[in-house]
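The aim of this short unit is practical: by the end, you should be able to scan a pair of folded records and say something sensible about each. We start with the first protein, listed as its amino acid sequence and then its structure tokens.
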Amino acid sequence: HERLKDLDMVLCPQPGFILFYGMFWEHAFGSGTGEPTLPRLTHSVPYKSAVDAGIKVALSSDNPCVPNLSPLLAIWEAVHRRTMRIGSETRSVRDSYVYNHLDERGVMVDERVDFNQALRGHTIDAAYCGFEEKEKGSLEEGKLADLVVWNKDIRIIGERMPVGSLKEIEPVMTIIDGQIVNGIGSKH
């Protein structure tokens, strides 16, 4: 972490990979308790460790590799860090277990962050990663007015909620560069 911080690097993980592929990683590579010479993939997306070390973390979806490009999913996954349950007959996405790892002393390292940090990772830190923090990423005078108004308070993502509940949170208004739009590219 020190080298990343010294180089002013930004970590840009896609938390959705844990939800959609974590169980496959565990099956292929084993749990997160491997030897130090072969770190296991539960060390992937070390979000909280990076933030605690003072490294900026920008969230993204990496669509189409992660089949859901919703910013709410990335925020939810950064907060909950859960894998998907496989074999659901309803084919719905449901969370299974928290995907963390043991350190070299056998102590569980919790890589989950709180809602505010996850939101920051998807807004101002993501703008910083793209060299756009002066134009967007936060609600300030002089910046682009790019925002979404949701039908529910999205801070509920910070509370214990199943991933399937995200479908109940819908955008009711999208504003891009100060213009209200309905869907991609259509203005009213």
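Turning to the second protein, read its sequence before its tokens, just as you did above.
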Amino acid sequence: MHSRRGTPRTIFISGASSGIGLATARLFHKRGWRVAATLRNPSAAPAWMSSPDILALRMDVIERHSIDLAVKQAVAAFGGIDVLLNNAGYGLSGPLEGATDAQMRHQFDVNFFGLINVTQAALPHMRAAGAGLIMNVSSIGGLIGMPFAPLYIASKHAVEGLTESIRFELRPFGIRVKLIEPGGVRTDFISRSQRWTEHPAYADAVAATRRMTEGLNASLPGPESVARVIFRAANDQSDRLRYLARPGPYVALYRLLPDWIWRRMIAAALDRHARSAGTTALTGA
């Protein structure tokens, strides 16, 4: 658990203001790591982040200057970055036909290009140290497609492909790469109306989808179990690439079932919620 001549290891986390990022920062701090926790508004950081072994840094993954400054501050304070956790994310749901250019670009600016920006800023320090670990938070949506989340899922598929590819070019420098793939974890993605695209042709189907996802989200556990998977992956010295975290039955069923059965199963679930809401899901399988 120690590096750089016995000093505690350091993790740099993007998107540490809530959810998985916040839970991960807390767990690593409890386990004796030094934590550079980045937030868009560090003044809102919880009181426990005032510890000497935690830096609450301002960073927005779509602002390159804020990334460069946060990485520089973390390296200056802790002597380097052992683990980078690219966790910051944004979830856009709704029909593709209703998505605006601004919505589509923002989805990829945060989930894909933002991840690249942070990785590029951290890599020179890891190469100089001859060691490092980059962990990218994907999703089971990076493995399978689900209704009315095409852009979010596309961004996570992009993260999967990027991560799987860069491990080849980074391995000669002693830098390993891993994917964290959370499944059912309670988030605030679906509760924010601005994170849904709109189009009248899909109104009933979207209403059914929102009804279903809101019901599921309320019953899901918090992000602490995912943080534990991240901690385990950070301490795993193997070259294992993927770490599923609370995937639920979806990945297994997707891999096991013929495509036509999978599609009918998802459509039937949406139709049940549509009927309970008095609408038509229009999920032709």
